[in-house]
Amino acid sequence: MAWELIEVAGNLTSLQHSTVDVLAAKIEPHVANALIRQLNQVCPLENLRHVKRVRRRIECGGKPELSIILCLPFGPENCKNGFSEHVQKVVETYQLIPFIAKVASCPAMSKEDWEEQCKLWPTSYHPPHDIDGASGFKDEELPSIFDCMRTAIQLSEVGNAAIIVDPSSMQIISKAADQIHQHDASLKKNTCVRVESDGVSSLAETAEDNDRKFLLSSSHVRNDLKMEVSCINLWGWKKHRSSEQKRLPSEGGFLWHPLRHAAIVAIENAAERDKMLFHTSTLSTTKLKLKGDMQACSDNPPVNWPKDKEQSAHQECWSDLSRRNMPYLCTGFDIYLVWEPCTMCAMSLVHQRFKRIFYAFPNPNAGALGSVYRLHREKSLNHHYSVFRIKVPEPYLNGRSDFSNKCCSDSAPP
Amino acid sequence: MAATGFMELALDQAKLALDNLEVPVGCVIVENGKVISSGSNKTNATRNATRHAEMEAIDVLLREWQSIGLDQPLVAEKFAGCDLYVTCEPCIMCASALAILGIREVYFGCANDKFGGCGSVMSLHESSSSDDLTGRQDTRPRGFKCTGGIMAEEAVALFRNFYEQGNPNAPKPHRPVRVDQQ
Known about the structure:
Chain A: InterPro entries: CMP_dCMP_dom, Cytidine_deaminase-like. The complex is a heterodimer. By secondary structure, chain A is an alpha+beta fold. Helices cover 32% and strands 16% of the residues of chain A. Chain A has 14 helices and twelve strands. In chain A, the strands form three sheets. Chain A has a six-stranded mixed β-sheet. Chain A has a four-stranded antiparallel β-sheet with strand order 3-4-2-7, sandwiched between helices. A two-stranded antiparallel ribbon of chain A has the order 5-6. In chain A, a hairpin with a 4-residue loop joins strand 8 and strand 9 (171-177). Chain B is α/β, with parallel strands linked by helices. Chain B is built from six helices and five strands. In chain B, helix 1 (3-19) packs parallel to helix 6. The longest helix of chain B has 17 residues, at 3-19. Residues 128-139 and 173-182 of chain B have low confidence and may be disordered.
């Protein structure tokens, strides 16, 4: 089994092929229009807008056969025999014989999915290109993409890990592991979380995970380790008692933090780097230029304008070129996550303007990029990234814990 | 103090953000009728678009509670007795964060049509989500109660002020910033 890259927009894991039952009935073609109108009124397909009301099939004899969806499986409360009075009336008027049909529960994300869905019952399909900002990948990028994911997996002995990469130079912008349970900036920043080396490999062999739909193996399959992943076990922090509770946090720091998921910490590190490298603040210059406007429109004139001396210095630095070269958040960058991010992290990646998101393992509990939600398909958002899942070959994962221990901890490998 | 009283304090925080040329959103966190934390949006200054007012106010509390030696279960208990007043509907990220922390109640000013996480785009405050289509069992704890529209006009007026002056940190091609036209 080789490394593999799958666009999540085009191939969702579990949700994509799931179906729901609807009540349908065969109808005569000449009543179709009237029935569609009536049923759309009394029983609109609220949560199944992608599903077409009528299915047309050619029978063996070459005669077209029409079926119509009457209602959803669990109709309104005042239902009788599984459907409402209104639907009952339609059924009686047209002497229909309801049957149960299966339809796709989610809109198709790719043409292949759509074709698959239509075998059950026709759906409508809007190609994802409707949304701006989507960008794919080139085949020659694949080796470096897989390399980045290897680096991320090595960083994630326990919990999630994130690596931000500038794909134009393949430079690593920042790295981070989960920092929810224990966090000491001086010790843990950009380094791996250690695990007991004797625990991992032996327990991995006895791992039991009935959920075979998810590609998991080695230590990633263990439920107890999975529960250490911040994006999976969102409320786990409440029960966790820090072993070093007696200690007090250092100035301005945290001993632990329920929201310091890997992606959030990686973004913070990238922002710090940005501030260091591009500290010539064009913002201050803009402030000066804006000063007049501000005072005109605000009753509370700002108090923190730069002093005159700084003013001239900043104005000298100011040029369109430097402005254009200064990165805006993580525009154009990729992020690699070992686990599919939760809703909080997925939205933080929207805010920070990432271009592409890569993750290795789906997060069935709280994943927001394919498993539970599909945030990147949400049209109202002001930014959209592409999402990819990287399938990691099992042999790689099986050998991983040893390899990882070797490079991340001082202890000798078992 | 009535809800509008706390919202006025949140609006003060939003004005503070505006004065610093930040997107004007502010918030306060209230426990037992007393303001125990406040925050204003700091996304431009930090170059970190996740530093929303809510995140700032949350970090103040986590720092303080840890400095007096509270552990995770105790902090969880504290958050369960806290209410948030924020000038704009929490975004999807912040609404998720508030659910993770288990805050008791959220009062917001104007709705956030583009990325609101408390009803506008997603409803992360509701504990029983409509994931039932997939047959998924919802294991989330109780969500939080959410009330919007408190002093919404004041919150919107601040946004108007901000967008009239232009976001100085926004990428150039996207929106003409007023200074450039001079």
